[in-house]
Design brief:
Length: about 1000
């Protein structure tokens, strides 16, 4: 390698290397003076080279670190020529640290050992401590943890002796990391807790961040995920402020891993994508491998094992056969999972055997437990249950030793499955209940709503298994009440976030919060809405790359928004003191919720078989149905035909599909239906089905086309426990002064005749200039408001509703007044009924961006924010007894396992509304208007309940040939309270 040196430095270096010049003979007095001058020149040159090396080292990129090594190599002979052993020792230590960062472990050890020898000769304790820490760090990365611990403890004693508080903090932190890796988590935490105040006292933000990060990992392993996230985010803020790319990448990867553990693989990917370029920029090969492995694991979780393999092989290529044995083992472990997912179990076993060998060699018990669990799963899939049990029991013992709650729960759940395979149902029940208790404990420590939802969704298969197991026990011992416990387990798994949110919806989480945080939240909401509207516009124009860039920015804003929400909740003592409601037991369902005229039908779809509970105040029956695949295929087939049943060619096929589905999911319970009100808690694809349109399974063959709605009120609920929580609210609900507020017939397009003159890109068009269709269409496309057609009949709908109440009891917003601004400022908490007659916007990927479409332009044609988003509805406070969403697909949303369909209806429940009428598909404008006129006549003039009024309106339309097809009337369903 060529060195670019100044002439003076080059001369000095050559003289040292060749022994030529002043060092060739014994100096006299004049020579001594010259020698002293020469030594000082050497010292100055050495210091200059060392300082430049440190500057380059501070840049922390792979290239700058290599350049730093060059400068250190220049400095070393200069220090020796100057006979400055302290400078030499310091340079050796610094160079060793850089070699370690670059992965050249043996060179790092050599340099550290040389520096340690020099420091000892000089009697310099701090230098010895630095060298000892460096040696310990190298041995740690080589997997020789006990040896590393010995060196770190020697360093700690020296630092304490000389009262080097900053160094003591770093030594404590390093020892904590070693104990963590050895699986001794409490010891590790003890050392971190000693280190943290010392880091802060020494004014070392980088060290403080390192300790916070390490503590976050411990809390994540123990299942205290919210606490872990708080530590990670504190660390990340410090690292970003210091410009520490390498450490920031570690923290970003840790945050991603936490989200992954909570079941949110997409959020995890967002953080990994931020970490990977930082890893590459800092030249951290082992770190790159870790992040690549985690990306592979995320894609595997998202159901893309082939893409996962690509990342995992990249990861393995960076570390295989080298000195990063932990990183290699982790890559092998996830490669095994990907291979198993692709059906290659033998290759998976080979990968796991390699991983186990590596983890056992370095004593990393956390990784070993993960590999043992995966090995147990594979052998269970292969049918070797005894071998599977052996691996899983080993894993369980390890997880308990190191206190890793997540893997302990996973091992217990897998053991339960093997025990069931072996016919040991009671043993299986003991294990799965212990696993679910751990899951509930971990979930209880999460305060962020979205994380609670994703975490429970990731564990939903364990609840499904538990329900099936309880039903097997019921079949063996029917008198012991296992069917009731299975129903209770289903309630425990369903709609939990909604249940808890409803219990807290009258608590003002903004009470006592810093106004600047609330202003920040408001601004972020505006940015989110604007960015989503931009993304929609770009996607609509086919500008894929720009839309993808907007999507990425949107993800970052969503993360920031969620973090701010968590911060607001965490700072509200009233919110923190609230107790989460427990799902109902059978006796509570029968005594507190149901009445003699009501029958609860609750479904749970399972892989092999599904279950239906029929519950009245006096009895419970349970029926076994086909597995999820069969039911969902039939449901989706029926739904697809039903939404086209206004066309004659689809009418017969829709009837056939609905009859088939009705027999499958209602046939077994036909004798229990009578004339009762039916409360449906559905599951999976059944959530998309209007049960009112099902052919009545109790009807005679002569009357097989009679829909279920003809004989029953039908109510939909995400869980029966949710209704019990809703019923606590009326005592607290304020009395409303007015009857109904209606928003209808908004203005969507620039070419709407109600627009006086268009404004585009800040310039008004000339009012005198005739508007051509092409100009208006082009402008509309540019502003992104072209996709929504005017709904003419909604105006008639609104007029008909308002005509049913006295003038002072109604509020009507039409045309431009049907705007988002009007909704936000109309005092809607004063109305008993709120009615939206407009388009709905469904976003099944991000339900918080589902919304109601209001006026998108004003009278002058200026584009304006016209979407009322679900995340804004969640924050509203309403006293309405009923919200009617007379818009397309407003009952739909993102399906989340356990939680159900999350979308607009949830938003209004959060806002305080106990009843919502919404639609399951896009209905023709005229038919919807007709249904709503009939509904309100019965509701307001006849003073019936919403459930009765909706049933009568739908039945009356079914009886008329023009509207008889379910397409016209069945799509609207009532969710919530029926009383």
């Amino acid at each position: 390698m060529r060195l670019l040196l100044s002439p003076m430095t080059l001369t000095l270096l050559l003289s040292v290397m060749t022994g030529i010049g002043v060092y060739a003979q014994e100096p006299n007095r004049q020579d001594s003076s010259r020698q002293n001058l020469s030594r000082e020149d050497n010292r100055l040159a050495a210091r200059a080279a060392s300082d430049e090396a440190e500057r380059l080292r501070g840049e922390k990129t792979a290239e700058s670190l290599r350049q730093a090594i060059v400068k250190f190599e220049v400095a070393l002979p200069l220090w020796r020529a100057a006979d400055d052993r302290s400078g030499e020792a310091e340079t050796l230590t610094n160079a060793a640290q850089v070699f370690n960062s670059l992965g050249e472990k043996q060179k790092a050890l050599d340099y550290f050992q040389q520096s340690l020898t020099l420091w000892k000769a000089l009697g310099e304790s701090k230098g010895q401590a630095d060298a000892l820490s460096g040696i310990g760090e190298v041995y740690f990365t080589l997997g020789e943890h006990r040896r590393a611990l010995d060196y770190m403890e020697q360093s700690l004693q020296l630092r304490r002796a000389i009262e080097d508080r900053r160094g003591e903090a770093m030594a404590l932190n390093d020892i904590g990391v070693i104990y963590h890796t050895l699986g001794e988590l409490q010891k590790a935490l003890d050392y971190y807790n000693q280190a943290l105040p010392l880091q802060r006292g020494a004014g070392n933000p980088s060290g403080e961040a390192m300790t916070l990060n390490a503590m976050g990992v411990i809390f994540r392993i123990r299942g205290a995920t919210q606490q872990a996230l708080a530590y990670f985010k504190q660390a990340l803020a410090l690292q970003r402020a210091a410009g520490d790319l390498r450490e920031a990448a570690i923290t970003l990867t840790n945050i991603g891993a936490l989200y992954f553990r909570l079941g949110d693989a997409q959020q995890a990917l967002d953080y990994y994508d931020q970490a990977l370029p930082l890893r590459r920029k800092s030249g951290d090969r082992a770190g790159q491998a870790i992040t690549l492995t985690n990306i592979g694991g995320a894609y595997l979780s998202l159901g893309d094992p082939q893409r996962a393999l690509e990342y995992l092989k990249q990861s393995l290529s960076l570390v295989q056969g080298g000195q990063s044995r932990s990183e290699e083992a982790q890559a092998l472990n996830v490669l095994a999972a990907a291979s198993s997912a692709l059906g290659d179990r033998q290759t998976a076993i080979e990968y796991l055997q390699q991983a186990l060998k590596l983890w056992r060699a370095i004593g990393e018990r956390q990784g070993e437990s993960s590999a043992l669990i995966r090995m147990g799963r594979i052998y269970r899939e292969l049918g070797d249950r005894q071998k599977a049990l052996g691996y899983l029991e080993q894993a369980l013992e390890l997880t308990r030793i190191i206190g890793e709650r997540s893997n302990e729960a996973a091992a217990l759940a897998d053991i339960a499955r093997v025990e069931q395979d072996l016919g040991n149902l009671d043993q299986a029940r003991t294990r799965i209940e212990a696993a679910l208790d751990l899951v509930e404990t971990m979930r209880g420590r999460i305060t962020a709503e979205d994380l609670r939802v994703s975490f429970l969704a990731s564990k939903y298969s364990d609840y499904e298994f538990y329900i099936d197991l309880l039903m097997r026990l019921h079949e063996r011992r029917p008198a012991e009440g296992f069917e009731a416990r299975a129903l209770e387990a289903n309630e425990r798994a369903r709609g939990r976030n909604l249940l808890e949110a409803l219990a807290t919806m009258r608590s003002d989480i903004h009470q006592g919060i810093d106004p600047s945080l609330l202003e920040q939240q408001r601004l972020l909401q505006q940015q989110l809405n604007a960015k989503e509207q931009l993304r929609m516009r770009l996607a609509g124009r086919g500008e894929t790359e720009k839309a993808a860039a907007a999507e990425k920015e949107l993800r970052s804003l969503l993360i920031e928004y969620q973090e701010l929400k968590d911060q607001i909740v965490a700072r509200n003592p009233q919110y923190a003191a609230l107790t989460d409601p427990a799902p109902l037991k059978l006796t509570e369902i029968q005594q507190r919720v149901l009445d003699p005229e009501t029958l609860l039908l609750e479904y749970a779809l399972g892989e092999e078989r599904s279950f239906l509970w029929a519950v009245t105040p006096a009895a419970i029956r349970v029926y076994t149905l086909p597995g999820r695949a069969a039911i969902e295929a039939a449901a989706l087939r029926a739904y697809g035909r039903l939404i086209k049943s206004n066309h004659r060619e689809y009418t017969v096929s829709a009837e056939q599909a609905m009859t088939e589905l009705s027999r499958m999911v209602l046939g077994p319970v036909a004798q229990d239906l009578g004339q009762k009100r039916l409360v449906i808690v559905s599951d999976g694809a059944l959530q998309y089905m209007p049960f009112g349109a099902f052919p009545d399974p109790a009807g005679s063959s002569m009357n097989r086309r009679r829909p279920l709605i003809a004989g029953h009120e039908i109510i939909s609920l995400p869980s029966i426990s949710v209704l019990a929580t809703m019923r606590r609210e009326p005592t607290e609900r304020q009395q409303t002064a007015r009857t109904v507020a209606v928003f209808s017939d908004p203005v969507f397009q620039l070419n709407d005749p109600r627009v006086k003159h268009a404004k585009f890109n800040g310039e008004k068009t000339n009012p005198e200039e005739p508007k051509t269709e092409s100009t208006l269409v082009r402008s509309a496309k540019e502003t992104g408001v072209m996709d929504f057609e005017r709904l003419i009949h909604t105006r008639q709908e609104a007029e008909a509703i308002i005509a049913l109440v006295p003038p002072e009891q109604g509020f009507k917003a039409l045309d431009f007044a049907a705007s988002r601004a009007t909704v936000m400022n109309a005092g809607l908490d004063q109305y008993r009924i709120i009615h939206f007659a407009t388009h709905g916007l469904l976003n099944s990927r991000r339900p918080e961006f589902s919304g109601i479409v209001l006026s998108l332009v004003d009278e002058q044609g200026t584009a304006q924010e016209g979407f009322l988003r679900a995340h804004e509805i969640y924050n509203m406070k309403l006293n309405a007894e009923l919200v009617v969403l007379s818009a397309c697909s407003t009952a739909l949303g993102k399906e989340i396992k356990g939680e159900g369909l999350v979308g607009l209806t949830r938003g209004f429940m959060y806002a305080g509304t106990p009843r919502i009428i919404a639609s399951l598909w896009n209905v023709r404008d005229e038919a919807t208007a007709e249904l709503m006129k009939r509904f309100y006549r019965t509701l307001l003039a006849g003073k019936s309940s919403p459930a009765v009024a909706l049933r009568e309106a739908q039945v009356s339309m079914w009886r008329e040939p023009r509207w008889a097809a379910p397409y016209y009337w069945a799509g609207f369903i009532l969710q919530g309270e029926w009383r």
